[in-house]
Write a structure and sequence with these properties.
There is one protein chain. The chain has 394 residues and is mainly α. It contains 13 helices and no strands. The chain has two domains: 184 residues, MFS general substrate transporter like domains (Growth Hormone, Chain: A); 186 residues, Up-down Bundle (Growth Hormone, Chain: A). Helix content is 83%, strand content 0%.
Length: 394
């Protein structure tokens, strides 16, 4: 039974992996798409922006559906929509048709991350959830790392349509695996109730729920400040080539994966402690980046790697705390959490562009650091006040 549960964790985590993987696999082939569809850079970028937007919005939809209809049905339905949309992307000969099917891809695969966390919450109790949550976060963290590598290889060897054909093949494997092995995990004694939009306000009014959700927003806002603006900074300060800039991101990506692995094994510590202390360590890492990023490239790499490590350590603990806090509607809570994380991804480039224009990179990262510090202080007040934690308080 234990081995079977571990297999299910990897199975649903791989479905969650497909969301960010499909998002970034597309990035290296943007020039080819522009040429083959005779379109503009702006319209092709919209296919990525719309994908991210629908990925975020659908988190709020799938959460309540999974709580009311069950996990298996929603997972299979979401992957099926993703597969049909990916086939549509393969046959798209117009940028506008591609835009529609890319949006539908996100509508479908958004189910993966919500259902994965919810299923893990169903299968494991208390501290035992932290390790499988670490596995889940590792898989999700690998998605945006592996995507550009695979996309670049396929785009260089074949035309851009073949990328979507490869996604169809992977999607079929994920659908078959979940169809054959994923049983319904929703507790039989779960209270059946109608979803009300006010459920989200209830989650946000909860001290633990709102703290974890806003932490997720700030974390991904800061992360995407690095992903989007670091290439420009490295070009301006160190004159790196495109290939060299890509290599700089490898330590950041690996540190997130390693951090997620470590975070999944921090069962001996209070989850509240881990979340608070890693938040402060992230603040320190961003400050270190501001101080040393112009001094030497190796110091820049060390600072962003530390940021990734502390971020990764926090992620599995956050999801564990959230699923424990909202036992009856953990999928709805997960949906709200993921929505704000994806909104952080979207706001990072938008707000960051304005800050860079106003005051350069120091203002960009200084603002992120100040926001992170403010939230860290809030976490301290909510989670560590009076040291009322203990070893089992997640």
């Amino acid at each position: 039974m234990k081995n079977n549960r571990a297999f299910i964790v990897y199975l649903v985590a791989f479905a969650a992996f497909l969301g960010p993987f499909t998002q970034t696999i597309y990035v290296p082939i943007i020039p080819e798409v522009i040429n083959e569809l005779h379109t503009s850079h702006f319209l092709v970028n919209l296919t990525i922006s719309f994908y991210t937007l629908f990925l975020a919005i659908m988190q709020m939809v799938y959460g309540p559906l999974a709580d009311s209809k069950g996990r298996r049905k929603i997972m299979l339905a979401g992957i099926s929509v993703y597969l049909l949309a990916t086939i549509g992307c393969y046959f798209s000969e117009s940028i506008y048709i591609l835009l529609i099917f890319r949006s539908l891809q996100a509508v479908g695969i958004a189910a993966g991350s919500v259902i994965a966390v919810t299923v893990i919450g169903d299968l494991f109790e208390g501290n035992t959830r932290i390790k499988p949550m670490g596995t889940f976060q590792m898989m999700v963290s690998l998605g945006p790392v592996v995507g550009p590598v695979v996309g670049g290889f396929l785009g260089g060897s074949f035309n851009f349509h073949f990328v979507f054909l490869a996604l169809v093949a992977v999607g079929l494997l994920v659908l078959a695996g979940n169809f054959l092995f994923l049983k319904e995990t929703k507790p039989e004694n779960a209270v059946k109730r109608r979803f009300k939009f006010t459920d989200y306000f209830t989650i946000l009014k909860n001290r633990t729920g709102s703290a974890i959700i806003f932490l997720g927003f700030i974390q991904y806002y800061s992360l995407y400040n690095f992903l989007v603006f670091l290439p420009g900074l490295m070009g301006d300060r160190y004159g790196l080539t495109v290939e060299e800039k890509g290599l700089v991101f490898v330590p950041l990506s690996l540190s997130i994966v390693i951090g997620s692995f470590i975070g999944g094994r921090l069962q001996r510590f209070s989850g509240k402690q881990v979340v608070v202390y890693t938040a402060y360590l992230n603040v320190a890492a961003i400050l270190l980046f501001i101080l040393v990023s112009h001094v030497a490239l190796i110091l820049l790499i060390v600072s962003i790697s530390l940021f990734g490590l502390f971020l990764g350590m926090s992620l599995p603990v956050q999801t564990t705390m959230l699923t424990l806090e909202f036992q009856a509607n953990r999928a709805t809570a997960t949906g709200a959490y993921n929505f704000f994380r994806y909104m952080g991804m979207a706001f990072g480039p938008i707000v960051g562009s304005l800050l860079v224009q106003m005051g350069g990179y120091n203002l960009l990262y200084g603002f992120a650091d100040a926001a992170f510090l403010g939230l860290s202080l809030l976490l301290s007040k909510r989670f560590l006040k009076g040291n009322t934690f203990n070893q089992t308080s997640i």
